[in-house]
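Our preliminary data section would be incomplete without showing what the modeling component actually yields. Below, a chain of 190 amino acids is followed by its predicted structure, encoded as tokens that our downstream tools consume directly.
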Amino acid sequence: MKDTFGPPLRAAALTALVGLLAWFLLRPPSLDGLEGLLTILLGAAVIILVAAWAVTALAGEEMPEPEFRRLVDRSDALARLPPPSAPPSEFDELVIAALDELPAELLEVLGDTPVVVSRRGHEHHAYGHYIGGTVARDGHPDHIVVYQDTLERDFGHDPELLRAQVRRTVRHELAHHLGWDERGVRGLGL
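Predicted structure:
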């Protein structure tokens, strides 16, 4: 319950505080119209709560814990496997090339972080995921997952476009690994 109503209520409270302060500074109310003031405050509170709820509802939900745990466990299991005896696929080569293009300092950061190719992007509606040391989930090991199915579906018609998007996805998830949130990563142009 706290996870559902906590963020909208915090956003509503902050918005209400700023709005009320601005209103009182710009148009101080008189005590003659106390009933009108209470009506305005109640209306403003309702509008603020509805707007805050709508914003957090549109932001989307976090991946359910069982699904997250399954993805992490599978990624761990795949990372422990020996390298495949078959040569890498064309898509694997794109991911390898994107990693090879990174500066040496960033490759050092990725030294203990597996980069896994998966065909489950359609389930997550994503091109990639960074899983690991965030504030909410510090107990999970770091992983970067690149989703082959969604990338090939959306960019596979043009090999150069696919190569560029794989490179961008790898860098996007690496930026998350380095601590950037979604807004910060998008601010970097990734």
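DSSP finds nine helices and three strands in the chain. The first strand starts at residue 115 and ends at 118. Preliminary results of this kind motivate Aim 1 of the renewal.
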